[in-house]
Amino acid sequence: MTGPLPDVPPVYVLGLPRLTAGFDQAERLDRRAHLLAHGSPPALPGHRLAELADAIALRGRGGAGFPLARKLEAVAHHARRSGVRPAVVVNGCEGEPACRKDTVLLCRAPHLVLDGALLAADALGARTLVVGVTKDTAETSVRDALAERGLSDRRRGRSLRARLVRVPERLVSGEASALIRAAEGGPALPPGRRVRAAESGLGGAPTLFSNAETFAQLAVAARLGAHRYASTGAPHEPGTLLLTVSGAVPSPAVVEAPSGVPLPYVLQVCAADPAPGGVLVGGYHGAWLDAPTAYGAVVTREALAALGGALGAGAVLPVPAGSCPLGETLRVAHWLAAESSGQCGPCRLGLPALAGALAATLSGGGQETLEAVRRAAQAVRGRGACKHPDGAARFVLSALDAFADDLAAHALGGCGRETAGVLPLPAPEAADAAEGTGAGNPPAAADRLAVDWTLCEGHGLCAKLLPEAVRLDPDGYPVISDTVLPGRLRGRAQRAVRRCPALALRLEKS
Fold first, then answer.
1. Quick one: 310 exposed, middle or buried, by C-beta within 10 A (0-12, 13-18, 19+)?
2. pTM of the full predicted structure?
3. CA nearest neighbour of 289 among 377, 420, 403, 390
4. Do residues 121 and 129 lie in contact, with contact meaning Cβ atoms separated by under 8 Å?
5. Cα separation of 1 and 465, whole Å?
6. Residues 305-352: pLDDT tens digits?
């Protein structure tokens, strides 16, 4: 099985490098090396920066794909209306196990990201800049880059204060409201209601929130100008993009390529199997493409969406023809269910129900369980405090559409293929570290739930106390998710074990 990706995988470039310029000269571009590779960025007033972002059709590269020009205009509008100086937040929190492009930028080209963030801060008149990260490597690099520029959280006669925020390595940590809460000293969780950062973000100030690649693209565009920036890439989505390619490849890599590049070419460069069983595009909030569709695709947001895919966070994951793609989907679906922040019922209860219904379908449950999958997906859509349940539902439903033949085979008793586990998921040790086991403390052995069937009487209390890991079958008996329990669920799992009326539930070391 594939484990976690390295923080900074190898980088390949198709065509001329832009974001990765200078990577052939140094592992990390310090301030001097950065200026030699890119030169100094121009200063642009707010309206000019928004016009530039609009002219190059720059959208957020973190998953949602919201136009940056509209974000800039909205923040400027609310700042004028409220009379409050805005803030800028760089999202470098790649909580998705299949993504490393932002981490690569923050570790190897941190000044390019800071250039874009400072361009926006100057144009908007921002008073505060925050960079959020999840990994040690990114934290060290960004902290050094801020020091190289003389930026800190102290005034020292400066109009801008800059600081770094470290959050747990979880999928929800990079959600806008979660990262902003963490920057304010709270937990890195969505607040339970949807809040527009452009209206009221960091400290209640209008906040420009976007991910690291978006700011790096803005810095490149400011130097090149709209015309030169658009000299490469697809006409309606110009420039380059960063893709993290993993799954069934010899070695995970980050690829800088012009938009509009054929997807098969990207896979070929990474030595992927030329006849995969399917390709996941956009990551774990993205969508599956079957092999023929994937090998006819080009990499733009619009083109992938037209095929039922998604550019998302730029992850591309082929699976081998010998592995069951629906089994791969189920592994990730269980992980997505456990990644819920546990605050919204549709997410905390709905995502485990979605994974459980998919498991029942793959076990030959037939049309009834398949309809249960679709009902569970519909039940969570648009009902969470963040977009996590929407992305998880899209991911699962896309597998049903892309692998209809495999689904039919499972209904008749199985497709006959094992699940190789090539889609990367965090190791138990990494999950424990993200939950705060503490530096210097060895991670606890991973726990799994188990049932003593000679004792179980089907009371169902375990499913009520721990829906992320336990569901009930039609007879009311527990069905246990075959995944390691994340550290954050261990306390509730111990409670479920203690409260089992028949003493049939237990925790076992993996």
1. buried
2. 0.87
3. 403
4. yes
5. 30
6. 999 999 999 999 999 999 999 999 999 999 998 887 777 777 778 888
